[in-house]
Specification:
The chain is of the alpha/beta class and 498 residues long. The protein has 16 helices and 22 strands. 35% of the residues lie in helices and 20% in strands. The longest helix is centred in the first third of the chain and has 20 residues, at 62-81. It comes from Lasiosphaeria hispida.
Length: 498
């Protein structure tokens, strides 16, 4: 382990670049009460494109958590009293400062997450849009009775110190999507990034010290021990977690002891149902991209493709041809569509699923572990995009969420039966229906058991529209006014007129 320097003052202006380029990014600190602080021990992750070590980051302790929570509590009383417009102005200034460092953040995100340049730029760009659009939202006070004798209304009041636990697949956008709603609603916020992708979060915290009052936005890096320190802390009022269902259950159990408010956005096994009346030339590239975007490492990727038997063979042939055109490369390649699996642990899990191909005698239409044409002989956690041709419904590739670049294509013929098959999962995050008959497709979509359903699109999101999961895919909502309400307590206000 290395020893890092202690906290140092911040003097740069909000729109100065925090760093000139890549490399070097050698200095990463926690942000506690607007000071950059170090820890006695540090750790580092690996660049998933090259497997080379990235710089050291802090390993936070109980003392660091206590200090951050205390600072958040002290800042809360003044922050909550600011108006919506005042808090929104801080978010807009933060967005401007991020935009002034756009190239640096994009490069750093690509390096830590294994995202090709265009994917990293898309994530940072959407995060900027998210900040600016969320800043326009307000939670209105609702008057539910107004008579000669009394009025009764419902308002939403902030909770206190909130914690966002952010996954490694979208470490920039998903953190911003929790931060902006929490802060706009009047809470203070502690950002806990994934141990696999802490770098952009730590630099965002550093940038935030130039924008926000002390204690309003703080960032703590750590190992697997850090999450439980935050979820069990008695003075944390709310935890918003995005990650796996298995870890989400542990987060929920930890929060229960102190009755914390909780939002969980968990895994998905999204189904897409394709009717035979679609235009294959238009639809196949969209579905292929939505299945293999970020190497399948998105909770709302299409992970089960149900294609009507009348067009199945033609669809499969065109999907294989399309996926073959997708360039696979690391973060530095501006032309790449998809990159590596983000970390070694996930790489091993996905390789294990690839290993089922031979064991279960699945039919491989494209890819598989024996295929080296897509990835070549290179360092990094690369796996070839793989399409499994009509495996049994009970197969692991159908039942489990792969979270990697492998997808099953499945035949269907009966409408009622395919809806049953699509709903036959403990997951319920997203689902879509594709058809030229929009009314029929919408009727089918409304029968799907998922928190987000689409017709002729998938993974379509907007800052003002809430999203969340059904069943084991989550509890509560992120984004939009409904997501902001999750950072508040509802309060009934009765006024008797004397």
């Amino acid at each position: 382990m290395q020893v890092m320097e202690s906290g140092r003052p911040i003097t740069a202006l909000a729109k100065e670049a925090i760093y000139p380029g890549l490399p070097p990014y050698q200095s990463f600190h926690n942000t506690i009460d607007n000071a950059l602080t170090g820890t006695k021990t540090t750790r580092h992750t690996l660049d998933p494109s090259t497997e080379s070590p990235l710089p050291a980051v802090p390993v936070s302790t109980q003392d660091d958590v206590d200090d951050a929570v205390r600072a958040g509590q002290e800042a809360f009383s003044a922050w909550r009293e600011r108006s919506y417009d005042e808090r929104a102005e801080y978010l807009l200034r933060f967005a401007d400062a991020i935009e002034a460092n756009l190239d640096g953040f994009t490069e750093l995100l690509g390096r830590e997450a294994g995202k090709p340049m265009q994917a990293a730029a898309m994530e940072v760009g959407f995060a900027l849009q998210h900040l600016r659009e969320t800043a326009k939202l307000r939670i209105p006070e609702a008057v539910v009775e107004d008579s000669d004798e009394r009025t009764a209304s419902v308002r939403y009041v902030p909770l206190g110190v909130g914690v966002g636990i952010i996954p490694w697949n979208f470490p920039f956008l998903l953190g911003i999507g929790k931060l902006d709603a929490a802060l706009l609603a009047g809470n203070t916020f502690i950002w806990k990034p994934s141990p696999f992708s802490p770098y952009t979060a730590l630099k965002l915290g550093e940038l935030g010290t130039k924008i926000f009052p002390p204690g309003v936005l703080q960032v703590l890096s750590g190992d697997d021990a850090l999450g439980p320190l935050l979820t069990s802390h008695p003075s944390v009022a709310k935890v918003s977690f995005t990650g796996s269902t298995a870890t989400g259950k542990k987060v929920m159990a930890s929060c229960a002891a102190t009755l914390k408010r909780l939002t969980l956005e968990l895994g998905g096994n999204d189904a897409a149902i394709v009717w035979p009346d679609v235009d294959l030339a238009r639809v196949v590239p969209k579905l292929g991209a939505l299945a293999f975007l970020h190497s399948g490492q998105i909770c709302m990727n299409i992970k089960r493709l149900y294609v009507h038997e009348a067009i199945y063979d033609a669809f499969l042939a065109q999907l294989v041809a399309f996926v073959k055109t997708l360039k696979i490369a690391g973060a530095g390649d501006a032309e790449a569509f998809t990159g590596p699996v983000q970390n070694g642990a996930q790489y091993a899990r996905v390789r294990d699923l690839y290993g089922e191909v031979a064991k279960q005698n699945w039919s491989v239409a494209l890819g598989g572990l024996d295929s080296t044409s897509a990835t070549g002989e290179r360092k990094g956690f690369f796996l070839p995009p793989t399409i499994i041709d009509n495996p049994p419904d009970e197969s692991r590739i159908v039942v489990e969420e792969p979270f990697g670049p492998i997808v099953p294509l499945l035949k269907w013929s009966d409408e009622k039966d395919v809806v049953r098959r699509a709903n036959d999962s403990m997951m319920g995050l997203g689902a879509s229906v594709w058809s030229a008959d929009v009314e029929r497709a919408e009727r089918m979509a409304r029968r799907l058991e998922a928190g987000n359903v689409w017709v002729n699109s998938h993974f379509e999101l907007a800052p003002h529209v809430p999203f969340g999961g059904h069943k084991w895919s989550g509890i509560g909502l992120d984004w939009g006014v409904e997501g902001m309400k999750g950072w508040c307590n509802a309060q009934a206000v009765w006024v008797r007129k004397l």
